[in-house]
Amino acid sequence: MIIKSQTQRILLIFVVALLPALITLGLVRFYLGASLGDFIPSYQGEMNDSIHNWREIYTFNQVGFKGGYYTVNEIPARVGFTHYYAYGPAYPMFYGLIGRFTGWLPASPPIFNMVLITITLLGMLIWLRFDNRQLAYVALLIVTFWPLLLYIPSNMMESLNHAFAFVLAALFYEAIRHSGQVSIRFVIVGLVAILFAALFRLTWILLALPFLLVTLRNGSRSRLWIAVISAGGLIVTIELLAVLLNAPFPLDNNNPGTIAENFTKVGFRAIGMAADAALPNLFRLFIGTPLEFAERIIVFVLLVYLLGQALRWVTKRTSRAGELSPPETLVHLLNLGTIATLRLRCCSRCCC
């Protein structure tokens, strides 16, 4: 009976891990009447990202750093040897290196995405040892989280970042489950994972602070300051790497440069520029499809709830059963707060 139960659980884990791939294959086959092998990078409206990304990866796959310029106005990164775009060389390097063993074809991106998502999701489920009810919740989340499914059959970087999300979610889950009582090796592995993800998307580094806070062995003020200073050092380090490795991108037509360089050039005018982009989006919160509107409402409702949870700690009220712990609330606040801020900050002409 135990063997049968274990077999069923292992089978359920594999089924849940394969859900993104199965749904992707099903939608492509029965909705589009095609297969992943038919994928060709294409130009859609104002978005040339698919072709651009495919060519960058192909260039690194073939000649490494000896390729042509993929930068704005052919201005390379400060280090000079990399000619890749404003998000840096990590993405074309990662897929390009894998492509040296598997080949890099027009249909490679969705296949790479699907395999990467399946492997990281499977690893997370095996490591965290979810029970059947938790596995059912994960399955429900997967089949209803349309950004995960939308980007697998594409040549965008989102699937790679979704894979990072599975890995980092597992690390945070373990830290919170053990109430921060984890080894130094675990903390180092977690920080290395965050730093590695931040090479591909800079904002992952914002998780360094909550990760250090949830892995504190005690809540003393000295340890809190150590966490804040350490996270600050990691953020500065990854930003310096970005300045060196990422090609300049113009904040406006007259100011080509990285985000940090542009801020030093325009000073506090950057705050006004951010407000100019955010204010129009405040009036666009009620514009869009019902799905888009529902997503925005959910994010802001959850933010209000989490702020209420944080207020309870400040006032030192006793928590009730079933409420989120301080570390959990901190992580969710940072995550959803960043999402809400970036959504407002996105240029109103973009589909953010």
Describe the model:
- With 352 residues, the protein is mainly α.
- It contains 14 helices and no strands.
- The longest helix is centred in the N-terminal third of the chain and has 30 residues, at 2-31.
- It is globular, with a radius of gyration of 22 Å.
Question: In terms of structural class, how would the helical and strand content be classed?
Answer: mainly alpha
Spatial gap, N to C terminus? 50 Å
Described by its quaternary structure, the protein is single chain
- The count of DSSP E runs of length 2 or more, i.e. the number of strands, is 0
Cα Rg: 22 Å
Helix content bin = 55-70%
Low-confidence parts? 347-352
The backbone outline, from C-alpha atoms, is globular
What is the typical, i.e. mean, pLDDT? 80
Strand content: under 5%
Report the biggest beta sheet as strand number plus sense, adding barrel if it closes: none
Count of helix runs: 14
Give the ordered list of helices and strands: HHHHHHHHHHHHHH
Structure summarized in a few sentences:
The chain is mainly α and 352 residues long. Helix content is 66%, strand content 0%. The N and C termini lie far apart (50 Å).
Give the SSE map.
Elements: H1 2-31, H2 49-63, H3 90-102, H4 108-128, H5 132-144, H6 146-151, H7 158-177, H8 184-198, H9 208-214, H10 221-245, H11 259-266, H12 269-282, H13 290-314, H14 326-345
Helix pairs in contact: 1-4, 1-5, 2-3, 4-7, 7-8, 9-10, 9-14, 13-14
Keywords for this entry:
mainly alpha, 352 residues, disordered C terminus, globular
